[in-house]
Prior knowledge:
Elements: H1 3-14, H2 19-26, H3 30-38, H4 45-54, H5 60-65, H6 84-99, H7 107-112, E1 128-131, E2 137-140
Helix pairs in contact: 2-3
Amino acid sequence: MNDIALxxxxxxxxxxxxxxxxxxxxxxxxxxxxxILSGRNKVSLQVVEQIVKVFxxxxxxxxxxxxxxxxxxxxxxxxxxxxxxxQKVMAEEEKTLKKAPQIPIEAKENKEKKIQPNxxxxxxxxxxxxxxxxxxxxVYKP
Length: 142
């Protein structure tokens, strides 16, 4: 079994899923997961894409390269445990916000030019995706 397959096995175990349940969540045939985990087939790009699409808290860097940890700082939307992980996530988000650069706003320019928001429709925000220079992403869902 190759390294990516081992990390997929780790994800399946940490999510407490059977191979069949994992495949169903990814909307792929269970035999694909079976063949990957047995070493018969290599992991396809489509499978990796499905994993990061469904398990939004999984680190792509870890999945592909083994660097960092399996989970990013955001819990999975489908997470049904106690509130402790959510509190940890909120603390990490606060740290991230504190590290964000402060951009000064010049008061004189704001008095002269009133900025009107460009609202195309009254849609609500479904999710916010932040892409970082190191290739990682974070998905926030309100």
